[in-house]
Amino acid sequence: MSDWEFFQDDENFEQLEITSAQTPSPAPKKAGPSLKARAIDLLSRREHSRVELRRKLLRHAEDPDQVDSLLDELAQQNWQSDERFVRSHLNRRANKFGTYRLLQELRQHGVDENHIQAAQTDLKETEFERAYDIWERKFGQAPTDQKAYAKQYRFMANRGFGSGVLRRILERFNDSF
Known about the structure:
It is a single chain. The chain is an all-alpha fold. It has a domain of 47 residues: Winged helix-like DNA-binding domain superfamily/Winged helix DNA-binding domain (Arc Repressor Mutant, subunit A). 68% of the residues lie in helices and 0% in strands. Helix 7 crosses helix 8 and helix 8 runs parallel beside helix 10. The radius of gyration is 30 Å and the shape is elongated.
């Protein structure tokens, strides 16, 4: 029986109408939270840079100008601050990483270069102490040979510490092998 013959029969056609009427139509999409609610939700979890917050909100906005005006409002009310983001980020990560890595992370988050320069000044003052603390936690003892020295140096360099600081930490052990 072909499709055409199948629908010629009134009984089959009525059955088709009944089953199609019983099929539920797709539910209408619910409107999600407003952009402001999304922004406040994101900021309540942790500080965000303006660029980072803008990128996250653009996924839910119809108009980029709407996001920009919201970000201006949030900055005016001091709910979003790049300066506060920089301080928060450095407080979270400075005890694990060196100056170079931290500054690169700030650039990836879209922080303004003025804030980065201020952070660099603060980080340079404490870099040796931070590097020594990390080295002591990880290794705690002098390298016994050139291979161990290279391993310790690589570990610290991968954490973002400069070669001058690393040499100051490891140079006193250079004579032991």
